[in-house]
């Protein structure tokens, strides 16, 4: 665990009312051990689980609890706290605080600071599995993940304090600390070469028409952004999109599947990670008419020929150590179809999503399936948050 990027950072830890509040003590110790400056905000309910005195002792600073506190306002009120923070971490985040954050409420100190800060925000939910699974909670998490510079740390599955077994347990402090460190600078892909395909392809029929699909390219571009942040040299081979590529990324614009294959093939032999996020058109018109085909001369059927599978072809050219990641866009039967694709395409990871829930949207709900470890269902979250989770998994696979 390399948490060196936490050194000298101002970390503001927000604790809300959950039995998992005791884990915040360990998280705070981890931050300090790695050289961070720490301050703590506790909600009223959090103080029922852990005392402010404990957190004061651990952080070395007075704990902030009230939105309206004359003494605090003259020293460090909510606006000063919001400005002081290099990162706000809310762990554990109860269902109640998630609802307040999602709704933009500022009725207590923690939600007011969440609203006032311009620093990145990391939210680690913790609650009973039924509460986590409820539509209202999932909607709130999705909403929060869409806020600028705001990331969700997925809760874990396992034994819960209420005696049940299921998803909703606070992620381990080490994992939350790792996610915090990643916000500043994860060097997890330092020096690595990452090749990413993104967007749709367009297969021309004549001067005026082409075959394509609804892919927006947002997922592939989010992956490129996070991979650059993680220190990788990124080549993004992209079909036509309106997305903004990240700085320091080499963008190769293509239109057809054949062009995508050629652009990727040139770079494959030096690639450490290949991520195929593009929605490649599986078929192209058999012939191209340099003019516009007239209505009267258009046949009843359109002869098509199959395009190459870019992912399958590029995998043949990659170095042995390379990590291979595909996507599976499915209309139904997500798990079974994605599992079959993982095997058929000889991938290390496949990110499955339902087309209706992902295409052209800003967020996504991804089921990650691995060749050699158990599956992970991510909550619905922004594509940037999802990309962060995917790149984290990829970095770990690269180390093995
Ligand atoms: N892919 C590719 N080239 C193709 C088709 C797909 O590189 N010609 C890649 C996609 O980028 C994705 C994965 O293969 O990573 C799976 O794509 P998907 O469209 O879900 O599956 P297909 O292989 O096209 O199978 P089907 O259409 O039957 O679901």
Written overview of the protein:
37% of the residues lie in helices and 23% in strands. It contains 16 helices and 21 strands. Strands 12-11-8-13-16-17-19-20 form an eight-stranded mixed beta sheet, with helices on both faces. Strands 2-1-3-4-5 form a five-stranded parallel beta sheet, sandwiched between helices. The two termini are 14 Å apart. The model has no long low-confidence stretch (mean pLDDT 92). Bound molecules: cytidine-5'-triphosphate. The site of cytidine-5'-triphosphate has 15 residues, from helix 13 and strand 16.
Main sheet, how many strands, which sense, barrel? 8 strands, mixed
Per the principal axes of the C-alpha atoms, what is the gross shape?
Answer: elongated
What compounds are bound to the protein? cytidine-5'-triphosphate
Measured between the Cα atoms of the first and last residue, the distance is: 14 Å
- Secondary structure: helix percent: 25-40%
Instruction: Specify Rg, calculated over alpha carbons.
Output: 24 Å
The level 1 CATH classification of the largest domain is Alpha Beta
CATH fourth-tier homologous superfamily of the largest domain: CoaB-like
Corresponding CATH architecture of the largest domain: 3-Layer(aba) Sandwich
Overall number of domains: 2
**What are the low-pLDDT stretches, counting only 5+ consecutive residues below 50?**
none
Query: How many H/I helical runs?
Result: 16
Number of strands: 21
- CATH fold-level assignment of the largest domain: Rossmann fold
Major sheet: order of its strands? 12-11-8-13-16-17-19-20
Q: How big a fraction of the residues is strand? A: 15-25%
Mean pLDDT: 92
Structural class per helix/strand content? alpha/beta
């Amino acid at each position: 665990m390399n948490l060196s990027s936490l050194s000298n950072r101002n970390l503001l830890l927000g604790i809300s009312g959950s039995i998992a509040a005791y884990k915040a003590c360990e998280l705070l110790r981890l931050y300090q051990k790695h050289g961070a400056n720490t301050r703590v905000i506790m909600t009223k309910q959090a103080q029922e689980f852990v005392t402010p005195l404990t957190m004061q002792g651990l952080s070395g600073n007075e704990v902030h609890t009230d939105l309206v506190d004359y003494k605090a306002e003259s020293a460090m009120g909510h606006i000063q706290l919001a400005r002081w923070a290099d990162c706000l971490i809310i762990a554990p985040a109860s269902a109640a605080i998630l609802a307040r954050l999602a709704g933009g409420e500022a009725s207590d100190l923690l939600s007011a600071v969440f609203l006032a800060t311009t620093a990145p925000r990391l939210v680690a939910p913790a609650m009973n599995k039924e509460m986590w699974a409820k539509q209202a909670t999932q909607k709130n998490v999705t909403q929060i993940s869409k806020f600028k510079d705001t990331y969700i740390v997925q809760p874990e599955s396992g034994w819960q304090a209420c005696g049940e077994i299921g998803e909703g347990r606070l992620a381990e402090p080490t994992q939350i600390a790792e996610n915090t460190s990643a916000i500043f600078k994860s060097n997890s892909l330092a020096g690595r070469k990452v090749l990413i395909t993104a967007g749709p392809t367009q297969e021309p029929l004549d001067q005026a028409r082409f075959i394509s699909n609804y892919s927006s390219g947002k997922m592939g571009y989010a992956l490129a952004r996070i991979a650059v942040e993680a220190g990788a040299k990124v080549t993004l081979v992209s079909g036509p999109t309106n997305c903004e590529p990240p700085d320091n990324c080499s963008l190769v614009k293509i239109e057809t599947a054949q062009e995508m294959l050629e652009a990727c093939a040139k770079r494959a032999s030096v690639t450490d990670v290949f991520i195929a996020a593009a929605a490649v058109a599986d078929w192209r018109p058999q012939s191209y008419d340099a003019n516009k085909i007239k209505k009267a001369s258009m046949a009843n059927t359109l002869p098509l020929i199959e395009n190459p599978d870019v992912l399958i072809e590029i995998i043949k050219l990659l170095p042995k150590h390379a990590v291979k990641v595909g996507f599976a866009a499915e209309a139904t039967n997500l798990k079974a179809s994605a599992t079959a694709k993982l095997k058929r395409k000889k991938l290390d990871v496949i990110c499955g999503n339902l087309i209706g829930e992902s295409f052209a949207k800003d967020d996504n709900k991804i089921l990650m399936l691995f060749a050699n470890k158990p599956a992970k269902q991510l909550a619905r979250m922004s594509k940037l948050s999802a990309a962060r989770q995917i790149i984290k998994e990829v970095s770990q696979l690269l180390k093995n």
